[in-house]
């Protein structure tokens, strides 16, 4: 009988520049592009130093693979420390920061490409990270040996799309100002007990602890399908995080956020908090389909 090969495991890391769109607004395209390329170059050199590989660059985000989770953790901490030093030396703007998510788990390898649930999980983890933060899963921490010399903090338990069980997120502490050890046992949820209702025509859904993410767009895989001109296949997402609800635009034409009593605000390739009641217009403002939202307490 042929021998069945073992499924390979790898450390998967995503390093994303937080709020990089702000640089384009403040500095202009050319200057912002140079700064972003410099920051990404710093991160890529760290990845190579730790014997990792950049699989892809997606906008202002690096998708990297390492032999194991320990190498991914070391690289993540080094990227954050190196970025901090660059800011102190005024080589990078004071507010420029990476948010990083990594996991260790099984993958599928096809030549230089990497696929599988671990890639999906790492991508979801980085979406929960804030600027200057390194997040991973509690499950990944149990596989680490390097973790004995680093501190971890419990962040929250989240339910990710496509997974029945909750994922426990923890933060790898890289700054000496924050050195509390991990202790996630019996820690209550920090996700707010609130919900956000979305409605498009006769279609409605709720973002809550039970469903912490809803996608909007033309694709049939979206929870709210909007098959209209000017709407991207995956136009935007609405997520519940520990500090509230967030709109993340991933479209070509942008999303106009109109909070109740406020002027329209264009959200393009960035994220913004959702509070109270309002309207999301997907695409060019003069003919955009409208999605209504309302934030309130979770129903009993």
List keywords for this structure.
21% helix; 300 residues; seven-stranded mixed β-sheet; alpha+beta; 2 domains; 20 strands; six-stranded antiparallel β-sheet; Tumour Suppressor Smad4; single chain; Alpha-Beta Plaits
Q: Can you offer a commentary on this structure?
A:
Helix content is 21%, strand content 37%. It contains five helices and 20 strands. It has helices spanning 21-27, 29-49, 69-88, 117-128, 138-141; strands at residues 9-17, 53-58, 61-66, 98-106, 108-110, 113-115, 134-137, 151-158, 167-173, 194-200, 203-207, 213-217, 224-225, 236-241, 244-249, 255-259, 265-267, 271-274, 277-282, 290-297. The model is unreliable at 176-189 (pLDDT under 50).
CATH architectural arrangement of the largest domain:
2-Layer Sandwich
Distance between the termini: 57 Å
CATH class of the largest domain: Alpha Beta
Q: In the CATH hierarchy, what is the superfamily of the largest domain?
A: Nucleotide cyclase, GGDEF domain
Oligomer: single chain
Count of DSSP strands: 20
> What's the pLDDT, averaged over the residues?
85
Largest sheet: 7 strands, mixed
Q: Note the overall shape.
A: globular
The number of domains: 2
Please provide the ordered H/E string of secondary-structure elements.
EHHEEHEEEHEHEEEEEEEEEEEEE
Order of adjacent strands in the largest pleated sheet: 2-3-1-4-7-9-8
Portion in strands: 35-45%
Q: Residue ranges: pLDDT <50 for 5 or more in a row?
A: 176-189
**Secondary structure category:** alpha+beta
The value of Rg in angstroms is: 20 Å
Kindly report the CATH topology of the largest domain.
Alpha-Beta Plaits
What's the total helix number?
5
Helix content range of the residues, please?
10-25%
């Amino acid at each position: 009988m042929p021998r069945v090969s073992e499924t390979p495991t790898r450390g998967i890391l995503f390093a994303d520049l937080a709020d990089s769109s702000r640089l384009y607004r403040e500095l202009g395209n050319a200057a912002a592009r140079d700064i972003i390329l410099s920051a990404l170059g710093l991160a890529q050199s760290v990845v190579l130093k730790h014997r990792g590989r950049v699989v892809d660059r997606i906008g202002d985000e690096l998708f990297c693979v390492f032999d194991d989770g320990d190498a991914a953790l070391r690289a993540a901490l080094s990227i954050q420390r190196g970025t901090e030093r660059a800011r102190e030396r005024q080589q990078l703007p004071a507010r420029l920061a990476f948010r990083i998510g990594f996991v260790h788990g099984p993958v599928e390898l096809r030549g230089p490409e990497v696929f599988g649930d671990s890639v999906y999980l790492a991508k979801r983890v980085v979406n929960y990270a804030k600027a200057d933060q390194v997040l991973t899963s509690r499950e990944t921490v149990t596989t680490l040996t390097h973790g004995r010399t680093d501190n971890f903090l419990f962040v929250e338990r989240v339910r990710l799309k496509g997974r029945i069980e909750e994922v426990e997120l923890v933060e790898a502490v890289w700054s000496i100002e924050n050195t509390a050890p991990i202790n996630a046992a019996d820690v209550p949820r920090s996700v707010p007990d609130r919900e956000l209702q979305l409605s498009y025509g006769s279609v409605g859904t709720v973002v809550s602890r039970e469903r912490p993410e809803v996608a909007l767009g033309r694709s049939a895989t979206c929870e709210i399908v909007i098959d209209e001109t000017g709407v991207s296949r995956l136009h935007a997402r609405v997520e519940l995080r520990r500090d509230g609800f967030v709109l993340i635009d991933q479209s070509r034409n942008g999303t106009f956020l109109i909070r109740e009593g406020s002027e329209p605000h264009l959200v393009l390739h960035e994220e913004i908090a959702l509070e109270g009641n309002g309207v999301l217009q997907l695409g060019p403002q003069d003919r955009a389909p409208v999605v209504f939202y309302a934030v309130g307490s979770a129903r009993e």
